[in-house]
Structure formats: structure tokens, C-alpha cells
């Protein structure tokens, strides 16, 4: 009864032995010359600055969730396509219209995300605080302050 699984078990055991053996051999035979560059944390060639525990912006998580949502929704296309060709003509017409509605809803969501700039990594100008030019404010205030300091006789 289990004779069909013997080759699979042999392959799994051989793969595990090979993987563990390569790790052990590289540890035993590999060069051991650590210096400060090899033991330093690596961040894409850039010298690390600051704490590694800084918070990610919410925008990162939003883009990740949107990617997962659209990725999972497009996975539904494959089983639909497999069952589409084997179904009767009347059901094919219904399934085609149903998938058209599904794709239309996906496009509405996608264009909504583009419209609200949800996929842009940089903050929009609307979300950034307004910066006031202090020189322009000072120029507006100067004539009034000069008028107040001029003594009247």
C-alpha cells in the first residue's frame, strides 16, 4: 500500500542530506577571514544610517494590500477560463457576461486608485503642509512696521 511512496521518500531523504551536507561542508571548508566590512550590515551598498527599527510609511502597506487584492482577483481568471470551454453555449454566454462585469469592476477600482493617487509613492502636494515663504511675509509686514516706528510731530 505504501510502496508507491518509497521513491518519493528516498528522493526527500537524499535532498535533505544533500542540502545539509552542502551547508556543513561550506562551514567547515570555507575561509574564515572576517573583517569589519564583512560583518557590517548591508543595505544595498549604502552605509546604514539611523535605527533599523524605523517605521514604514502607511503608503507602503497600502500599495502592498492593493497589489495582493488585484493579484488574487486575477487568479480567478484561470479557473474561469478552464471551465468556460467545456460549458454549453448558453452557459458560455452567461459566463462571458459575468466575467465582463467582473473585469469592469476591477477597472473601476483601478481607475479610482489612479484618480486618488493611491499608487504614487511620493506624497501629493495636497497632502504636504503648505510652506510659507518668510521673505514674502516679511516684505508685507515691513511697510506697516516702518509706519509705526516713524515718529509723528
Outline? flat
Poorly predicted runs of 5 or more residues: none
Major beta-sheet overview: none
Elements, N to C (H/E): HHHHHH
Structural class of the helix and strand makeup? mainly alpha
Mean pLDDT: 79
**Helix share of residues?**
55-70%
Counting DSSP E segments of at least 2 residues, the number of strands comes to 0
Beta-strand residue fraction: under 5%
- Helical segment count: 6
Rg: 32 Å
- The CA-CA distance between the termini, in Å, is 117 Å
Short description:
The protein is an all-alpha fold. It contains 6 helices and no strands. The mean pLDDT is about 80.
What characteristics describe this protein?
single chain, 153 residues, mainly alpha, 6 helices, flat
Fold and architecture overview:
The radius of gyration is 32 Å and the shape is flat. The longest helix is centred in the middle third of the chain and has 27 residues, at about 90-115. It contains six helices and no strands. It has helices at about 5-30, 35-40, 60-75, 75-85, 90-115, 135-150. It has a domain at about 55-120. It is mainly alpha-helical and about 150 residues long. The relative contact order is 0.04.
Amino acid at each position: 500500500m505504501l510502496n508507491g511512496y518509497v521513491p518519493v521518500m528516498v528522493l526527500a531523504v537524499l535532498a535533505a542530506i544533500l542540502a545539509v551536507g552542502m551547508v556543513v561542508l561550506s562551514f567547515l571548508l570555507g575561509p574564515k577571514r572576517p573583517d569589519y566590512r564583512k560583518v557590517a550590515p548591508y543595505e544595498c551598498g549604502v552605509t546604514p544610517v539611523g535605527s533599523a527599527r524605523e517605521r514604514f510609511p502607511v503608503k507602503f502597506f497600502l500599495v502592498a494590500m492593493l497589489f495582493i487584492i488585484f493579484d488574487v482577483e486575477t487568479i480567478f481568471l484561470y479557473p474561469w477560463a478552464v471551465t468556460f470551454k467545456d460549458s454549453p453555449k448558453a452557459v458560455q454566454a452567461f459566463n462571458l457576461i459575468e466575467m465582463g462585469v467582473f473585469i469592469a469592476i476591477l477597472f473601476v477600482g483601478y481607475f479610482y486608485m489612479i484618480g486618488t493617487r493611491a499608487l504614487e509613492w511620493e506624497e501629493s502636494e495636497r497632502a504636504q503642509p503648505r510652506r510659507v515663504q518668510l521673505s514674502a511675509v516679511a516684505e508685507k509686514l515691513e511697510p506697516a512696521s516702518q509706519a509705526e516706528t516713524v515718529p509723528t510731530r
